User: What shape does this take?
Amino acid sequence: MGTWQRLLAFGLIWNVACVSAYAHPGHATDQEESGSVSGRTWTDKAGAFHLHGSFVAVKAGKVQIRRQDDSLVTLEVDRLSPDDRAWIDARAARIAAGNRQLLKREPSVNAVLVSTKATPPAIAKAFSAFVKTKEIQTRWDDRFFYVESRGIPAHPMMVGIRAWQQQVPIPQSYFGDNAWRIPLTPIPAKDPRTANGEFLRGAIALAVNGIPIFNPLNNRGDDAYLFGELDEYGGHCGRADDYHYHIAPVHLQKIVGPETPIAYALDGYPIFGVTEPDGSPVKGLDEFNGHEDASVNYHYHASKKYPYVNGGFHGEVTERDGQVDPQPRANPLRPALPPLRGAKIVGCEATKPNGYRVTYEVGNRQGSVAYMLAEDGSARFEFVEPGGRTTTETYSPRRRGPGRPEGPPPRDEGRLPRNKVRPPREEGGLSRTSRSTSTIAETRRVPTLEVSSSSVDDHGRIDVDCTCDGAGQTPDVSWKGAPAGAQFFALSLWHTAPDQEKSYWLVYNIPGDLTSLSRDARQVGKWGLNDKRRTDYDPMCSKGPGVKTYHLTVYALADPVMLDSRQATRAGLLNAIKDITLAEGTLDFTYERSR
Assistant: This one.
């Protein structure tokens, strides 16, 4: 099997079989083929729906489409019109032909298509040392410089972390259309944006070794370095097991030299180390850790105190859902885990090809997480608790959750949650009543509740008074179709962002004789925690442009939910009700900020 095929399949470069046709750079002749949000309109052969979005992949008789709100939809190819099926066949044939042409060139492990431009842009020099070591590969066009990588640095990882959420480094697929991109010609912003309290999700810069740099403040707004969340190189793994830095990787200055940037902010401006390019001390930095040089060229600097890296954006960027948009997506292989209190990472090593072991200490006892990545993209984990108990778990990328476990997950120091991430919906359009189910129904066949709300109009839009643009009231919600034996109900209002699942409203132990909650009803059932760790309704307040899709799921339960108040999160609820859910239903709705 060729290297390019393996890259397309999963991006791990570990002999993973390529069984899909994916859109990637080099084959596009128009916006529709390049994967842009403009896309095409897909039609059901029976005329039941029209769905607008761009082609992503086709595999095993199913096509994946990215909608304008950035969500993914998977459809059976046979459901589509003859024109759509013919288009998919032609597209897949062109991609296959392009892959065959690439294979004739005998590319290296990280081979990618590169620009035909004869002269590399100046930015290419900063990344060249890591292109030579094949840690990354670069390409460019007239507007952007693209960096492709697995997201795994050459230096040791994780050692020294004192506040650990049980993440471990797993290679990511930052390739093709999911590559990092940096503007070749940054544009000074009319209203520069601070990163202090903003852009708390996703990356704000990219190191020249291909590792993303996130905001020095974590998603709670705390200094990740001061809280002990970072390793000796200023990095750790996120909820998707994606390794990234939170402070400037100043160790790279020893590799590239003081005259070369160690990173580039996503607005296109370079980030130098703790000295000027000529080796002189840094003086006169603005609030974003940047300034202009003698040639009136702006750049940022690393620093030993906050903000450590670019403290905002001197150049133009687009914000969406609290992060710079667009940027690559991490590929979560398993659910995000809770923090492991008192743990300190003391080791992280490659045990064999495709295998790793992370070792930690709790008190005077040692535990470990060992994992092996298989050819099909799955991973087998072995957890050894400090008390000596050993369990195993297998995760599959196809389901974005655990596979068939060979034993229960660890219980003593941080229980593995059993909740799964809900896959893309296959229906086009939205309505005031539910048409699909979510998490629990994926693992157990349960009847469907019909969920509706008069707070959602006929076009699927939520009433403004249920958002931060209005009064911030909870929507009314009604349900019917509960089976006999339903003693209680629970509800969850949630949204799947590019890298995580967010929770806005959680209520459980709603009496079984109820079939609705009125607008802004706050005295019914027991309320759980939203993502801000508050026992309250968090009205949607999307910061990015465009329409977002949200979900309101109602569960019919055979028994009451017994949850400690500190565990009453969406993940905690799904884990608690996985064996007592009798039925469920989900209402989809949309919301777009009015300002």
Observations:
- Confidence is low (pLDDT under 50) at residues 1-38, 102-116, 398-438.
- The radius of gyration is 24 Å.
- The CA atoms of residues 495 and 550 lie 5 Å apart.
- The domain at 3-104 is CATH 2.30.30.700 (SH3 type barrels.).
